[in-house]
Amino acid sequence: MASESNQSVYRATTTAPVNIAVIKYWGKRDTTLNLPTNSSLSVTLSQKSLRTLTTASCSANYPTEDTLNLNGKPQEIQSSKRTLACLSNLRALRKALEDANPSLPKLSTHPLRIVSENNFPTAAGLASSAAGFAALVRAVANLYELPQSPRELSRIARQGSGSACRSLMGGYVAWRTGELADGSDSLAEEVAPASHWPEMRALVLVVSAEKKDVPSTEGMQTTVNTSELFATRAESIVPQRMDAIEAAIRDRDFPKFAEITMRDSNTFHATCLDSWPPIFYMNDVSRAAVRLVHDINRAVGRTVAAYTFDAGPNAVIYYEEKDSELVAGTVKAILGANTTGWEGAFYEKLTSVTAPGVALENIDSRVLDVLKDGVSRVILTGVGEGPITVDEHLVTETGEMVSQ
Amino acid sequence: MASESNQSVYRATTTAPVNIAVIKYWGKRDTTLNLPTNSSLSVTLSQKSLRTLTTASCSANYPTEDTLNLNGKPQEIQSSKRTLACLSNLRALRKALEDANPSLPKLSTHPLRIVSENNFPTAAGLASSAAGFAALVRAVANLYELPQSPRELSRIARQGSGSACRSLMGGYVAWRTGELADGSDSLAEEVAPASHWPEMRALVLVVSAEKKDVPSTEGMQTTVNTSELFATRAESIVPQRMDAIEAAIRDRDFPKFAEITMRDSNTFHATCLDSWPPIFYMNDVSRAAVRLVHDINRAVGRTVAAYTFDAGPNAVIYYEEKDSELVAGTVKAILGANTTGWEGAFYEKLTSVTAPGVALENIDSRVLDVLKDGVSRVILTGVGEGPITVDEHLVTETGEMVSQ
After folding, report:
1. Which fold has domain B200-382?
2. What pLDDT score was predicted for residue A353?
3. How far is CA B334 from CA B302, B370, B374, in A?
4. What is the topology classification, in CATH, of domain B9-193?
5. How many angstroms separate the CA of residue B274 from the nearest CA in chain A?
6. Nearest CA in chain A to B241
7. Of A210, A275, B39, B66, which has fewest CB within 10 angstroms of its CB?
């Protein structure tokens, strides 16, 4: 929402969440428009733990070029085709409003000053670009007072970073691959709000990675172009899994949700391994997390935990609040209390946990030391809401960047 | 060949080689007959480095039960359906000879005493069962003076251990999946003898494995039953690769041979990862070996090395003799001279190597320490011959086991 200031600096600020896919996006059928080869589905994570905060501002008094500052560092906006595509799409929508209603201030003609900051380290290997582009699109849309729905805005955010389109909504979000060449039907939509299944928790095990293998933008096209297994996943496996996991979410059927999540993570990494040259994102620590989850589920006698891995070694473990002690409690006992990140909004159920929820003799002995040595921190979070408009601006009323 | 002794103890002794597949066998369509879901192709490794030595003997004076001693330990032969199937098939062939020619001694009625030993530790994670069953079948066939060709005997060895059928021949060996339900056309055959392309070398990096993940017999059926990517490999990818690698072998086209070998290893492990629960055989050391090979090929500017991994973390690196310094020389420089296994028949080209063939600044720095810490020994070998009849018996003329 734009607020008119004395010096005609217009501002709007939003937060946006990270999302972690349970049916993975991997492969583009159009690299310019970021059109995916398959649909995907994610859980939006709570902004009590992880969020991007972005202020979009504009003023006729600003120097002519749009600027973007991220975590205190000016970005080369003119060389980022993806950022330019988002801004140009948003300006066009504002221009249409102004053309239809001449009484509106001509914000589309003003230079933009955008300031953004994450509350988590980029080095943690979390999908910061999704939250970043979602916040940018949402903030500018608010500044321009655009009437478009999150679903409609997802078309724009997608061009910034594919998975960003899913961070415009909370809860359980599907990104439909769409069929049209111009991408106009490749949109994100809410499958269920966070309130439908609020008990979902996510424990991120941040793995001390060396250098990342292959950036995902490059890696996914290597897979599309070289993996002979890839088409089978994109064309026949994922469509079935999308239907099945949407049903599992509708029914709040955790065991079903969990199995599909784990299997799709495995299939995704299998297509990476099948690429040429092969791409490895999981390492021995990741594999220890896989074994841990299978061992916990086996020991408990039902499926209480699900792992998933993005294009990096970090494990995200989904579980339900009621199983906190069995899952997060066991991880806490293995890692030891010294591992950082246990504090925060979702910690209540675990404060008093001192013994593992699952006795450690049920866990493959190889797993314990590998995890203890390899996990540098945890992030304890849960399903959460979409972008939220806030009044804490990163640009002052006179257009100065707030010092951080 | 049987030799009649004073006390009517008949003996025949053979060696048999290990083979390492370049198109992997993974999955049975019939678990009793060991009929594979797809054809496979392997390189028979020289017995100068690795071999099983097996003496088959029989005598009317032996106690009634067949016995098998392996590496000094009596085996529970009666509980091994696979061993019993091999012996019963071989006896039936002998019986047919005896029925046709009544002057032959009735060896098929004598109890068997079989003694076998490997010249390599079972713990090395090499496919010892392939060499073991090939030697057992070849030794008994010799004892019985069976006229069947290695191709015909491969039908029997296959029932002991699938990949054993490929160890009955030297050089480059294909195992055709066959189409008949009784498995009579699921046979191994020589694609090219070792002499066609004798320059092929194999460097085995023995990785200090913890406990093995899932035994291959169990693992492959998990993959068949659960991986949604598996059918694509078995039905469409492997048939194309079989044709292509046979052409590469015919043309002695190492770069083509190498790429297919590496890609099929990756696809095989991808289907393991896609299994439910997932199966991991490669670890961080294996992945370092993958990176090393890609880095060497990149630095040299042509494909001089190819990795492949069986159901375990050991890397087998194929290369041609002329590239010994570039490939094995670089590995030797990375591992240091203290790593055991460099000596032996194929070491000549490397004795004088002190500097890496490829400068180590071309190798991903993560690779160097991981390999140095993770590889416990190497085995330097090359393509070799099939089973060889020898006079060094492991059973004396009077039927006693030779003390080892």
Report:
1. Alpha-Beta Plaits (3.30.70)
2. 77
3. 21, 10, 12
4. Ribosomal Protein S5; domain 2 (3.30.230)
5. 5
6. A228
7. A210
